Amino acid sequence: MKRRIVCFCAALICALMIAAVVPVGTLAEFDPNEITTPYVVLVDAETGTVLWERASHDRAFPASTTKVMTCILAIEKCEDLEAEMTVGNVTNRGSVMGLSEGERIKIIDVLYGLMMVSGNDAAEALAKHIAGSKGAFAEMMNQKAAELGMTATHFVNANGLHNEEHYSTAYDMALLARYAMKNETFRRIVSSKEHTVAPTNRNKSGYELVNSNRLLVTPKNDEDCEYEYATGIKTGNTREAGYCLIASAEKDGRELIAVLLGDNEDRTETYYRFRSAKSLFEWAFENIITVNAASLNLQTTFETSVNNASFEDPYSGKLTLNASVDGCSLTGVRQELSSIIENASLITATPNYAAITAPIKKGDVLGTVTYEYDGKTLFSAELVASRDVAAMGEVVSSADPITIGEEDEHPSVGSYLLVWILVAVLIIIIIIVIKLLMSRGRYRRRGKKRGYYVYRKR
């Protein structure tokens, strides 16, 4: 009985010690699968690595998250954001900034109204100012989407008001957000909590703008969903699209982007998307790690032949391509990435390059190599030439040192052959000389012996 009591007390003490050391969040780990939003993706902003997703490539309606594209295009197309623009005839549907036709206002202030209060009127005003018409601006949006690799996206307007032909995916919108957040002006706008616009010719009071992103701001008497590490980006909702959100957060040098689309307005409260994004960020910052690819002992050299190489090439047209993995890294959930690290020998390297033709200069990028694990692409790296390769007809200067990277340690077959031939000739000469000397020695000894026996017979 006493032994049982002692064991129980010891177990209780251990449990208390563990509870004191292990964070509460680890004991009751958040599971992203608990989120009910139909279209979700969480990505690392720097690398673009997908950390968690659900139906992220399925078509969805983006609603006002569309304005991320409108904003970044306006920033890139307008040379002076402090210049005034004149507002044309604009919509008053949905959320608006409150612009009036004929109003003169700074472009930068319209951008704040576009992103902070999701002004549909601001979007139309910018589209007409930049492209001349809503349709022309939509063409610019689609062209930019194609450049960014948004292959499942099609825009028909600048504000995201519903149209069956206006669609995207969570993944595509994450691509757009990653691109836009690299622009400092865009970052400043979407991370602002409040912004004051000076009076205009049509609004003597000016505008007091408050960000609709509840991760950044909590309106009076509303539920507090603020997240201390939040950096943006854009809300959106229509009856057809549901509640949508593109959110970003940065902590300890790592920035994440979450896209949530399609929460049904009739079944989900408006704050659900903010709580979900916050939970995703907290889970990711706790569980996501990054590993330097160079530490995995991956295959980084690949041998190939060079067409049209000079006959004087010391390596007979053979060339080593080196993979530049020093700046590459793997980012992922701790448990999954740990498994990859432990089984790094199973990572496959697939080089991809076209026929290589001389002349080649050391450092030329000649292709790429893709590293995969268990059928999943981890990352890609450039393949660069390890040395110069002259073309036929070019003079190979012997005065210039030959730089061949790792091939310096492996002389060509021709060099080896010449050395062995010289060694073999030298050995043969030595053998012949030795045999000659030995033959002459034996002859002299026989002569002496023969004379000795003759003398004895006599």
Features:
elongated, five-stranded antiparallel sheet, 16 strands, alpha+beta, 11 helices, disordered C terminus, 458 residues
Descriptive account of the structure:
The protein has 458 residues and is α+β, with helices and mostly antiparallel strands. It contains eleven helices and 16 strands. The chain has helices spanning 2-21, 24-27, 67-77, 107-116, 120-131, 134-147, 170-180, 184-190, 272-287, 334-342, 413-457; strands at 39-44, 50-54, 84-86, 104-106, 194-197, 207-210, 230-238, 242-251, 254-263, 288-292, 301-305, 318-323, 329-333, 348-352, 365-373, 376-385. The strands form five sheets. The protein has a five-stranded antiparallel β-sheet, with helices on both faces. A hairpin with a 2-residue loop joins β8 (242-251) and β9. α3 (67-77) runs parallel beside α5 (120-131), α4 (107-116) packs across α5 and α5 crosses α6 (134-147). It is elongated, with a radius of gyration of 36 Å. Mean pLDDT is 87; it is low at 1-28, 398-410 and 450-458.
Please provide a brief summary of the model.
The chain is α+β, with helices and mostly antiparallel strands and 458 residues long.
Give the N-to-C terminal Cα separation. Answer: 121 Å
Count of alpha and pi helical runs? 11
Class derived from helix and strand content: alpha+beta
What gyration radius follows from the Cα positions, in whole Å? 36 Å
Q: Percent helix among the residues?
A: 25-40%
Dominant shape? elongated
Give the uncertain stretches in residue-range form.
1-28, 398-410, 450-458
**Could you tell me the mean pLDDT?**
87
Largest sheet: 5 strands, antiparallel
Strand order, sheet with most strands: 2-1-9-8-7
Question: Strand-and-helix sequence, N→C?
Answer: HHEEHEEHHHHHEEEEEHEEEEHEEEH
Strand content: 15-25%
Number of strands: 16
